[in-house]
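Subject: two folds for Thursday's group meeting

Dear M.,

Sorry for the delay on this. The cluster queue was jammed most of the week, so I only got both jobs back this morning. I'm pasting them in the order they finished. Each block is the input sequence followed by the predicted structure tokens. Could you check whether the formatting survives your parser before we put anything on slides? The first protein is the one we discussed after the seminar.
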Amino acid sequence: MKFAHTAAPHWLGANSVAIMMRRVLIALLPTLALSTWFLGVGILINTIFACLLCWLLEVIALYLRQRPVMMYANDGSALITALLIALAIPPLMPWWVTACACLFAIVFAKHLYGGLGYNIFNPAMVGYVVVLISFPEYLAKWPTPAETTAGFMYTFDIFLHGRPSHELITDALSGATPLDNIKMQLIQMHTINEILNQNSFGWLAGRGWEWINIAALIGGLWLLAKKVIRWQIPFAMLATMTLLYGIFYINDSSTQPSPLIGLFSGGTMLAAFFVATDPVSAATSDRGRLIYGCGIGALCYAIRTWGSYPDGIAFAVLLMNMAAPLIDRYTLPRIYGHKNKP
């Protein structure tokens, strides 16, 4: 009888790349469902288009690099990148903006560095930052409450042409995220209480945004229970943001958002559990993950408060991606049997 000879390890364990990616996709489904419910069907259109395009770009890149196409293309990593891009950009978005984000995420940020496992930057955040800088007008236009229920044809018209062919709704594409809204009105000398009493805000943050963040939190806790991600990065990031928001809120509660507003507005929970925890571009040691998460939380708060962008998650993640090798260099534990660290 002939036996097949293979290299070690001979037992791959329960958590393969495909299984882990599949669990991340499952954990993102509640966030996708609530985002579609509160922000409109444009989220779903962007998601389907981004998934198809990212998978196609993955196949082409693998073929050109002469890598096993089906084995790597079907591991789910491209779909996660596509889903994160679709959740990060406004739902009423023309197709070419989404396509540009997918192109830079898959081709430039992932495969030009050698593919999955070799990229030093989070691909989804690279794609998002590219379109944020290149198309700032589109990225600042979130749907108004009326547009979230405008219907499929109106949304698909914007997806194809960048604008509605007929003005069904006045003041189209004029909305803003809750963080952007708070920031602009604070500059206009409004107090936090006056801002939160407006109709566009719900019981905690922008109407619907608190539920989207709660869904991301539940999905992230499920990933922790399944041991797909480690606790250090989301804990450090959220704890740092809570501390900074709390210090400034205690100092002046009339002009500073509370920690709950900071944590449940924008993409905080999505970033903490699904973006910052990327195992390739993040720090790898336990102490390093804590430092890495604290850095993202501090940078995100600084950009939100004093920067020109309402939500600085993408920039915070990419800056800490650059710092991850240095963090690992000084936080990796000593190898057993050796006196010095590697």
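Second protein, same layout:
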Amino acid sequence: MSGTAMPEPAAYDALPDGVVVAGADQRVTVMNPAAERLLRRTAEQSLGRPYTEVLALQDAEGRDWWACTRPFDGLTTRTRQPERMLQLPDGRHLLVTSSFIRDPADRSTVRALVVAFRDTRTRDRQERERAELISIMAHDLRSPLASVKGFTATLLRAWERFNDEQKKQMLETVNADADRMTRLIGDLLDVSRIDAGRLELRPQVVDLVDLVRKAVDGRSAAEDARDRSFHVVATESLPETWADPDKVAQILGNLLENAVRHGAGAVTVRIDPEPEGGGTVIRVADEGDGVPAGAEQRVFLKFWRAGTGRGTGLGLFIVKGLTEAHRGRVQVGSGPSGGAEFTVVLPTNTPDFI
């Protein structure tokens, strides 16, 4: 911002961050609504007052921030100060950054000091989510890792004591647990990509019915689903759909796992053309108790779990992120048998939809 014209005061009003501007006389000339909210004082109380009074900041050691940094008579080479956490007199913390608007003809003169700040709630929430994610993933990885370590150590130590059938069963368990760890790590990477908006799709024409049948076959063969029945009901004529087959398979896998883990009874997957938009509708329904009333939107939040339910709480968050990456939509309601029914609508798309 150095050497540029100052924006009109109204230009700051729509910003989500607080902004306080002090002129060359070191008195406040601009205070936007976000700054009023964060500082808990009105513009009427602040305009014309010294900026050090309106924005009395201290560093982590309790020192006066402005006395330490001297924005108006300090180093003439500075044009800004990077964001850092500072404290208000009432103990609340803000993330603060400053820009110095210098006179182009006289670099030692600061025409205006622009201070932008925001509260730390967003960062604190992100840090809590990160810590919770690490805790959940560490807990969920520990069980299959212990199984892999136990069986491989046993086989290495006493290979001759087991017959071929026993060895096969142990190795199948190791393989299944390795697959589970791979899925957990994949979930972690997908959450990171969804949050950062960096999902990469490789679209091609997909056979949605074939993807559904493969997903159902794989899930029904899992140990925790062997006592459950699965049904696939598909309309013969479906529109041609461009999508990433791996991501669609992941959507289906997470929905089926959710139906097995949190639902009951038979799991039915229906595939129909969308009546209005020309896409395809995939419905996954079970016969359990359904989604708790009022939780229809929360189920797609990161880490949401029903009661003391097992799992990472990331599966449905990933379903939503992957579906929306395909420009589709997902929702949950009650199925024909009273259980939960998740509905994914995938548009037909075109090869260049991403």
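Two things I noticed about the second structure. The chain has a mean pLDDT of 87. The chain has nine helices and twelve strands.

Cheers,
T.
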